[in-house]
Specification:
The complex is a heterotrimer of chains A (112), B (358) and C (131). Chain A is an alpha+beta fold. Chain A is built from three helices and five strands. Chain B has 13 helices and eight strands. In chain B, a hairpin with a 6-residue loop joins strand 7 and strand 8. The chains are: A alpha+beta (112), B alpha+beta (358), C alpha/beta (131). The structure holds iron/sulfur cluster (2 copies).
Chain lengths: 112, 358, 131
């Protein structure tokens, strides 16, 4: 019945629950294994600057002398290179993709 | 008869991509189409002189947002060919799986856009609903939705364990079932047939003369598919190019529909044979030499010319994207068509102007 | 895996003849790639014969590079030739469809056409290789 192929499909789905989610009210389910936001755990970091050297987008800036770690989130492409290379496991990628932002400020962490 | 010039694009409802066409029309017939592209030329080819060749994979992958993975893969293969790096078989199989997944999602995206171009809004939604499932597999196995980021020189960055393989296979069952439902509409529905059949006929000889690639070439009856070159795991997996002989928009649509199922079969075979072992080898030294690498993107053959002189940066990196090769054919198709057919004809080559402007 | 391909250096005067021979053998135009090397340009014309790749290569001088258009043999070459002109400032004579430098609107004119030998870059060779 070549005239009604589409009608069948439309009818079938009209009787089902919608496969979409109501986004702002209902968040998307995080998928395990997704590369989301970069998480920095300051406690273990020794400011060795390896991650900053390896980052392909120069989103990280680390100052060894001042013990300063600067992360520019808008540059970060969540590639995970820094996570792979960090000797102290102080970097990780979460499955959460973060919320929208209106500021361009970098996140600055200072060690003592 | 007076001639009128109707501008089409760069912002047009049917194709939000930076291509502009001056359509010279006489009555309702298009006499000539004059293209202008280059609105967003990004100069990525030049960037290779500044970036380390290992890091450049990320740039190569970002040439296109839809066929991203195969761009990264082709770049890696080109550098690996120059440096004679033996890629572990498991990495080759994983690349194949991800490449085919990206083909499925690209074709489903195109089917949706085509439905939208025909004014078939609900079919568009259905195509993209299925595509979402593919994207979920991609995100779960590589970590990215459209930019996979899982290829690197010497292998891949992420492995698929037994659980992931199982999940992927069971998800593929659902995708195949749903895709059958949708492609039935594209292939059998009379309104689709009437809209696409006989529109934009490209004969076999014309397709070859205009240097067409991919589904456009195959829909005109030329059985050319770069996967037959046997890169990655395609040497072990048989790929028979999907062809049609009519050369019209309907044939191009049918080729893409069939290729989705071909890709599903290929993924099943690849996951079935997935060899154990390492997923990457260590890369030392710098590349020196040159190579032209060709692979099959969802949109057709992509050509990478890579020339290196032994430094950390490559000397020349040149990408010929499939759309670049298909543009002359599109202009030919537009000559003499009805004005109402322009959206269909522009979409039928699956244009990706942004990746043409690398 | 190195793909099967041939590369043949030909003199500039023999370009049209060489491309014509490719056409006569039924080659599909694959690409034209221009490369700016120190002191010269290098053009690579590639053709496909059902999976086998054959390329022709010509060299052009850095000053006032001129090359004849192959549009009479392969009509689809006009995009590549305009690209060569717009990005590399190579004059292509007799193009079928000439955009007069308007195919690509780049901020820097002829951005790719720098044939001066690159200044020795202070590239640290000690970038750690990834495993
Ligand atoms: S690599 Fe790890 S330890 Fe070193 S600076 Fe970066 S986050 Fe800190
Ligand atoms: S995830 Fe990638 S882009 Fe982001 S900071 Fe780490 S290395 Fe840089």
């Amino acid at each position: 019945m070549p005239y009604f192929e589409m009608s069948f499909l439309a009818l079938k789905w009209a009787l089902r629950k919608p496969p979409t989610t109501q986004y702002p009210f209902e968040a998307r389910k995080a998928i395990a294994g997704s590369r989301g936001q970069l998480i920095f755990t300051q406690d273990n970091c020794v400011y060795c600057t390896v991650c900053a050297k390896k980052c392909p987008t120069a989103a990280l800036k680390v100052d060894r002398a001042q013990k300063k770690f600067v992360l520019d989130r808008l540059r970060c492409i969540s590639c995970g290179c820094c996570v792979e290379i960090c000797p102290k496991n102080s970097l990780a990628l979460s499955t959460d993709h973060g919320s929208p932002t209106t500021s361009r400020d970098s996140e600055i962490y200072r060690g003592s | 008869m007076a001639r009128t010039i109707i501008p089409f694009g760069p912002q047009h409802p049917v194709l939000p991509e930076p291509i502009h066409l001056d359509l010279v029309v006489e009555d309702e017939k298009v006499i000539e189409a004059r293209p202008s592209i280059g609105f967003v030329h990004r100069g990525l080819e030049k960037l290779v002189e500044k970036k380390d060749f290992l890091d450049f994979v990320y740039v190569a992958e970002r040439i296109c947002g839809i066929c991203s993975f195969i761009h990264g893969q082709t770049y890696c293969q080109a550098v690996e060919a120059i440096m004679d790096i033996p890629v572990p078989p498991r990495a080759n199989y994983l690349r194949t799986v991800w490449g085919e997944l990206s083909r499925i999602h690209s074709h489903l995206l195109w089917l949706g856009l085509m439905a939208d171009g025909m004014g078939f809004e609900s079919l568009f939604m259905h195509s993209w609903r299925v595509r979402e499932r593919v994207l979920n597999i991609i995100e779960a196995t590589t970590g990215g939705r459209v930019i996979f980021g899982s290829c690197k020189i010497g292998g891949v960055r992420r492995d698929m364990d037994a659980g992931a393989v199982r999940d992927t296979l069971s998800e593929l069952e659902i995708i195949e079932r749903d895709t059958r439902e949708i492609t039935k509409v594209f292939i059998h529905d009379n309104s689709v047939k009437k809209r696409l059949g006989g529109v934009g006929v490209l004969s076999r000889q014309e397709a070859l003369d205009f240097g067409c690639v991919g589904p456009v070439l195959r829909a005109s009856g030329v059985a050319q598919d770069m996967r037959k070159l046997g890169y990655a795991a395609y040497q072990d997996l048989p790929v028979e190019p999907v062809t049609r002989t009519d050369g019209d928009s309907y044939a191009r649509c049918a080729v893409r529909c069939d290729e989705i199922f071909q890709s599903i079969t290929l993924i099943r075979q690849a996951l079935d044979k997935l060899p154990p072992g390492e997923i990457a080898v260590k890369v030392t030294g710098n590349p020196k030499g040159e190579v032209i690498m060709r692979t099959e993107q969802p949109r057709g053959e992509v050509v990478y010319c890579v020339k290196a002189n032994g430094a950390r940066n490559l000397q020349r990196f040149r990408v010929r994207t499939p759309t670049f090769a298909n543009l002359p054919a599109m202009l030919k198709l537009l000559q003499g068509c009805d004005l109402a057919d322009v959206p269909v004809l522009v979409l039928t080559i699956d244009p990706c102007i942004s990746c043409t402007e690398r | 895996m190195k793909p099967e391909q041939t590369l043949e250096e030909i003199p500039l005067a023999g370009l049209l003849e060489g491309v014509g021979a490719m056409r006569a053998k039924g080659g599909r135009m694959v690409q034209i790639c221009a490369t700016a090397l120190p002191g010269q340009f290098e053009l690579t014309y590639s053709f496909d014969f059902d999976g086998r790749l054959a390329s022709l290569r010509v060299q052009l001088p850095a000053s006032d590079p001129r090359v004849p258009s192959i549009a009479s043999i392969y009509a689809c070459a006009f995009l590549y030739e305009n690209e060569m002109h717009d990005l590399f400032n190579i004059k292509v004579e007799g193009m079928a469809l000439d955009f007069h430098g308007n195919l690509y609107n780049t901020t820097v004119k002829y951005a790719f056409g720098d044939t001066k030998a690159p200044a020795a870059k202070p590239q640290a060779a000690a970038v750690p290789s990834v495993a």
